[in-house]
Amino acid sequence: MTLHWMHLLPVDRYVVRMNCFINEADKKIITLLYQPLIGAVAHSIYFALLSELENDQYTSTETTHKTLMTMLGIPLDKIYEERKKLEAIGLLNVYKKKQDDDITYLYELQKPFSPLEFFKDDVLSVYLYNRVGKHRYLQLRERFTLDKINHEVFEEVTHSFSDVFTSLHHSEISSQQGELAASLTLVEEKEIITNDKGESSYTILEEAFDFSLLLAHLSNLINPTKLLTNKVKYTIVRLAFVYRIDPLEMSKIVQDSLTQNDTVDLDELRVKVKNWYRFTHESEPPALGLRVHPEKFRIMAGKAPTSEEEEMILHYETVSPLTLLESKSTDGARVPLTDMKIVEALILDYKLLPGVVNVLIDYILEINNMKLIKSYVEKIAGQWARKNIKTVKEAMDLAKEEYINREKLEKGENEVAVTKEKQTTKRQNNNRYVKKDRLPKWLIEEKKEKNLVEDGDISKMKEELETKFKQLKLQRNRGDS
């Protein structure tokens, strides 16, 4: 059950705006570097919106989402879900205006990172490595890499501004003041197009990391105000998010990355974090995945469970699939990489929501002796994806139905097996009886002769008894006379 209609309707109108130049190089960056992370559908939505801006235009005319649905050939709920990926990764800003019963959205397309910014980014570069693999990652990085030039062997002969241009005379400057003031006023009222991307186009909230806990584990000799500058906090939040580092562990890494002036060397911090991750999780990069079940698809949001089933629903809705798998391991054992890959495929390839993935994982583990069998997982995932399962309750009901059908099938197979066994036993008994009758010829002849002898003896005994009976009768008659 989808709830996109609570946020978006086909009749809702939208305007596309662009406040920076999107050139051919940017388009290649989006296709080669961003598309592996957001998928083909989100990529298509970005370029469909971009196509509505004609040459030298930075704002499109108003149109309805029905037009976008027709253009892309996909339903509105899919557009809404895929649009969120563009927002999350920093390629689209969305604004909403409601006037009476009419709703208009402003879709502001954002410029992608430059290749240098992308590959230096602590989040995007790691997730790209995970999605495309080492070989393809190195190919992409090489494609956007320039060979270094040794400028020392050259003599710079570039002309400076003052070599070419001359300054205005004082009288000329005075006569231009009025026009300059008017020009500046125009700039304030409007917005000059810029190619600057800024520090980051996507947001990871600081609330995701507990800095108070980090500070509690730092040495008392360190000045926290001087240490945790905005740039340092910004980097720590992103590194902690990607590599799943808790504040205690991060405090150790931060202290190992301090300079002589008690400031954090950010390059050293990144190296230390990656070394820690390699030591803890071997050489595999972190995987991209969603956290927990989306709020709008939760049926237990703001409710207290009143039954065991509702407690399970709440649990599935509020834990991530990785956390669920970790809870199934004994003694806090690390989740195997193969299992992590299966979970990632369920979320990214089969587009299942985290809570639904939790139900699927738990079901498979219960019926397969705590083993995730990839082929079986993918078979059920494909079915659930086709059924468009969105809520935990729907997933649980489907799992119950699957279990009942499985029980019936096993019962039927057992009954068939028992019937076959009985038939086999009967045939074996019959075969044994037939074999018993099929005696050797010589034994049959011996048996016949024995039967003939026995039949002759009986006849002879019968004759002798009749004779004796006659003799007794004759003697009795004589005595009476």
Automatic annotation (TrEMBL):
Residues 339-396 form the DnaB/C C-terminal domain. Residues 10-269 form the Replicative helicase loading/DNA remodeling protein DnaB N-terminal winged helix domain. InterPro entries: DnaB/C_C, DnaD-like_sf, WHD_DnaB. Belongs to the DnaB/DnaD family. This is Uncharacterized protein. It comes from Anaerobacillus alkalidiazotrophicus.
